[in-house]
Prior knowledge:
By secondary structure, the chain is mainly alpha-helical. Helix content is about 45%, strand content about 5%.
Amino acid sequence: MIVCNRCGASNNDGELLCLGCGHKLQSGRGGPFRDDGACRGPLEPMETPVPSLALRRFLLKGLEAWAYALALAGVGTYAALTGSWLLLLPAVGLMALLAWTRKV
Ligand SMILES: [Zn+2]
């Protein structure tokens, strides 16, 4: 027996349309889609761009860290060549501050 979900009338098994109102009956053996288009079958895992985005963010952070390190190395080389080590101190401080605020 199939009960119509629109008017509540009882219909025989195998009936496709409700005898009371003519609404299409759902026996549960039909296709995977309901009338409203919702899928009855197991849900497909949604493909999210999160992993690639996280990877890109990670790579960008790594690139940024390398940029800081190279800049610091440049300043260090300059300081070593010119002997003005005083320049290294604010540079290190600036890099540390940048790395800390940017959370590299
Ligand atoms: Zn009905």
